[in-house]
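Hey, I'm writing a tutorial for new members on how sequence and structure tokens pair up, and I'd like a real worked example in the thread rather than a made-up one. If someone can provide the structure for the chain below, I'll link this post from the tutorial.
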Amino acid sequence: MSSNPGRGSVTRPSYRCAECGWTTAKWVGRCGECQAWGSVSESGAPRGAATAAGPVHTAAQPIGDVDVTSARATSTGVDELDRVLGGGLVPGAVVLVAGEPGVGKSTLLLDVASRAAQHSRTVLYVTGEESAAQVRLRAERIGALRPRLFLAAETDLATVLGQVEAVRPDLLVVDSVQTISSDAVDGAAGNVSQVREVAAALIRAAKERGMATLLVGHVTKDGSIAGPRVLEHLVDVVCQFEGDRHSRLRMVRAVKNRYGPTDEVGCFDLSDAGIVGLADPSGLFLSRSTTPVSGTCVTVTLEGRRPLVAEVQALVARETSGNARRATSGLDTARVAMVVAVLASRQRLPLAGHDVYVATVGGVRLTEPAADLATALALTSAVTEHTLVPNLVAFGEVGLAGEVRPVTGLHRRLSEAARLGFTRAIVPEGTTDAAPAPAGMTVIEVADLAGAVRQGLRLTIVPDEPRGPAGLRLVRDP
């Protein structure tokens, strides 16, 4: 019996998600990987793997013989950005910088382009959102006019690649990738297909020429990077630009980095004169009050590897509308609500019928659990109307049972607090063995909230007899 020679060679279409690249044998309305609706379409490529061997252009070699000189990072001239990138820009690397409108992305990258051109590097700045005159005015304002900095206002991909061919830059800046479109792909600029095609073409040009490339990316209303998720997979580094439009502080953090760590954070000060790196931003997050005030507590948070000293302020007021409010600014609302519930249940603080307001100084965001203890002490201080002992910092995670749990990076937190003049620290129990106290600082270990209140406010709360403020009996400790 003869077999059918064509049997088994029939090719079937495959379907690919435009958002994340997930593939499937049949069409579905919702991606099985990223759960996006309407993003799956036929890829046009036949299924099946290639079995014929292709030509080898570069022979494989032992890993120890690979030349790494071409992969050395070059400083951008901005120390805070170098910290995030892991030392600077690697030739051929593609960096995606994403952030909300008006946060300062274009200003920072124009400053980077200017510093690179100042050090005899050819830079091409492609703007698709503004005219060349508008970028020139910003460059004059921040002092970024350089002879080797070339400017092109283009939105067509072929024209941008032609500019790259003509200028042959060492550094390419594209502002932004969502404004560039290709005639080879249907759809308007910024849609999934266009962004994927434009990014792939720019990445291919960067790798072939050894040209470092900085791409500006837009974000959606929920803060994620606009366009297909495959864009984040294609680039080498993804940096998130964060900041409150009502504050001058800006932070850049790497959420993906093939050449360095992803736990570093760069701090910047955005003003009318441009954007400047902040090597020591801790002073921005402390109040300037010289007299002790109840309802305040200082903590040390870790942004990546960097310790930042920040102040938490709390205000407790009797509600008048019949529905107690819980308002937060700069802290995680869910964690603050949990701390309030623990204080009300374990410490018997009368918070149920009161409005609670908790905020940070300077617009800094405290999202890690280490800020729980400072939040609890600030709330207790506000309710009891007693101030904390002077020059005190506190950090630790608060559990639902009222216990204080250990946190990471204790040595870096204590060293930063001591450097700024704090002399007392309340820390979780059992953590000082691995992190000895800095010179001149007294470190106090506590196991629960009751111990933290005794050490921080010199009080023992006895909730049975209503004799003190807010119906509490307060016993002053010696």
